[in-house]
Amino acid sequence: MAYSSFFKRTLLGTAKRVVKLFYHDTKVAAAYLKRDSLKKLSILSTHDGNQHHPGSIYAIFLIWQPSNLRWYIQNALKALNANGINVIVVANHKLSQEQIFLLREKSYLIIERDNTGLDIGGYRDATLYLNSIVRPKRVIYMNDSVYYFASGLNSIFKRLSSTEADICGTFENYEHCYHIQSFCFSVSGHLFSKECFQKFWESYLPVNSRLWAIQQGEIALSKMMVPLANKVEVIFRPDDLIEPLSKVPNEQRNELNSLLPRKIRFDTPSLNSILPNDIPPAFAQKVSIRSQVHTGAFLYRKYLKCPIMKRDLLYRLQFSIHEIQHILEETGSEGHLKEIISELEAKGTPEKLSLIKQVRVAVGIL
Q: Do residues 232 and 165 lie in contact, with contact meaning Cβ atoms separated by under 8 Å?
């Protein structure tokens, strides 16, 4: 039995190395070989929008919506414009004429690009383009990897756009190393215009690998900019859960546990051994250990009215589809429950993928 287990671990380890070599390392090597051409922006076309707000506050909004502009995109655009934010929509694909027409009415500028470097590559193109035409007071970076619910979204964008902090993130991440999560954060114009900030984007090598985008994009960006910031502000923090959780009756600790992702839930003996007064900090500690938009997904939604929810909670095996449906029925889906469940089920879980793709997910490439 021990030999069989050792053999399986060895085989999996070998498979991971081979998959990483083929699907990640070769892409990185190829990008280095053509790095001179990759220094050019991957912009296919631009279209002027009709929404120009005073105040020089901008949002770079990365989208992948080849079929239509879904409800959460519409929610985000509405809330951004309500806060006087000039929206630069960056589509990582060609847009239809209908999409361009709709986006023009809600955007300052539309950029179509070819998806080189994925979302971080899009951030790069838009950053360098924006820096060449204006001197912004503040810039929000965001993408459509999350659902944007309407309720509470205005206040989030107001805080992102009006804070005095050089960096304001919606969530942070302590997995592997500390970094601001890149799907929704903002920087001051002072930080944006710094030479080292612009140099980071100029020198960033856009590789079509999720692993590269996380390590050399999201994490490296935080390592560069956090030490430069006068202040780092985070909107949703684990400690903010302590006060509302202290009001939850002790007999509901099992229900609280079900709001944590499956992989980090307390086992029954551990949960029952926690003193009532220690429940709130114990749950806050659980949320703090990994990607907090995942670990605190439904605790933040239920107790802090968070309007942002990751679209990969099922795919990353955080919750079952039935758990997601039940929690959204309780916390609210603003009439989009069927659409959300349908989308999550369509993407499914890694078990439905081919063996090679499952290994790619395990490595972090897919």
A: yes
Same domain for 164 and 253?
no
Task: Give the pLDDT confidence of 99-116 residue by residue, as tens digits.
Answer: 999 999 999 999 999 999
| pLDDT score of 20 | 82
Residue spans of the chain under pLDDT 50: 1-3, 7
Alpha-carbon span 229 to 262, nearest angstrom: 35
End-to-end CA distance of the chain: 31
Both 99 and 151 in a single domain?
yes
Number of domains in the chain: 3
Backbone angles phi, psi at 23, to 5 degrees: -100, -10
Per the structure block, which two tokens stand in for 213?
């985008």
This model's pTM is above 0.85: yes
Closest by CA to 186, choosing from 133, 227, 129, 225, is 225
**In this structure, what token pair is assigned to residue 321?**
């589809």
Domain that holds residue 28: 2-33
Whether the CB-CB separation of 203 and 22 falls below 8 Å is answered with: no
pLDDT value for 361: 78
